[in-house]
Amino acid sequence: MATNRTKERVAIITGAGSGMGLAVARNLSRQGWNLSLADMNTSTGEAAAKEVGGIFTKTDVTSYNDQAALFQKTKDEFGQIDFVYANAGIVDSYNFYAAAEKLPPPPLPLLCQDVCLTGVVYSSYLGMHYMRQNPDKGGVIVMTSSAAGIYKSPALPVYAGAKHAVVGFMRSMAAMIGKDNIRVNCTIPGVVQTNLCDEETWKAFPSERFTKTSDIVNAVQMILDDESMNGQAVEISKDKTYFREELDFCDENQRATMSAAGTI
User: Fold this and answer.
1) Cα distance between residue 126 and residue 146, in whole Å
2) Confidence of residue 5 (pLDDT cuts 50, 70, 90)
3) Cα angle: 88, vertex 180, 220; to 5 degrees
4) Could you give the CA distance from residue 225 to residue 134 in angstroms, rounded to a whole number?
5) What is the CA radius of gyration of the chain?
6) Which terminus has fewer CB within 10 Å in the chain: N or C?
7) Nearest alpha carbon to residue 141 among 12, 5, 248, 3
8) Could you tell me the CA-to-CA distances from 74 to 70, 103, 112, 117, 138 in Å, in that order?
């Protein structure tokens, strides 16, 4: 049964134990939001929840049951869900191109794809259904893509593929869900120095080129504040934001075909 502890807005944030998720949680906490944080790391997740005055649920975002339990727990605790920040992500932890010792090669580990794409799909799907049940129907979903979601990233092809898919998923969902007063957008961060990689990996990047977590916070806040924003892919490069437009149709045949596909 919902406690409805306050009438403030309620947010679910995945990947909230550190990095961009924690930075956004801190920002919302200062504004009085009720926060439900999710992470695989119990230690950092519980510490983050304690810091921002929220609740924590250990969540494997690749598990639909884990995410469903997270959403229901949040609804039971706070009575509604106004914002979902589908942010959890990891990078490829293996060399995609390594030569196999024999054929067929061993199965490809797809945890990166599952976290970065399947997890986002689950969060967004559940967010849609729970936001439809809000006292004032509607809400905001923000998915985390990456610069690797619009540019090639040869060393991390599975990560890049998943992040490209997030952009397409967001645009497709946004085109359908507005009737429910739900806005769907995604962020496309530049390189942000988080615990996604170890210190040795980060040394490969010029430190002056890093985008700060505060820049991500500002972009997410902009999306929350601007009630006209829906279907936007917001690229963040250091302290600058860019709205990345969809490719135009190559010809009228494709326009007609894809317009019909939108009604299936």
Assistant:
1) 22
2) very low
3) 35
4) 19
5) 19
6) C
7) 12
8) 6, 48, 26, 22, 16
Q: Which residue bears the tokens 């615990």? A: 195
What pLDDT, on a 0 to 100 scale, did the predictor assign at position 62?
98
Tell me the sheet residues that pair with 48: none
Could you give the count of Cα atoms lying within 13 Å of 173 in the half-sphere of its Cβ? 28
Q: Quick: pLDDT tens for 156-166.
A: 999 999 999 99
- CB-based contacts of 248, cutoff 8 Å, min separation 6: none
Which residues 6+ apart lie within 8 Å of 63 measured at CB?
A: none
Q: How many C-beta atoms lie closer than 10 Å to residue 62's C-beta?
A: 19
Mean pLDDT over all residues of the chain? Answer: 92
Cα–Cα distance for residue pair 66/3, rounded to 1 Å: 22
Taking the whole predicted model, whether its pTM rises above 0.85 is answered as: yes
CB 124 within 8 A of CB 184: yes
Which residues are catalytically annotated?
A: 159, 163
Distance CA 244, CA 126 (A): 26
Report pLDDT digits (tens) over 147-188: 999 999 999 999 999 999 999 999 999 999 989 999 999 999
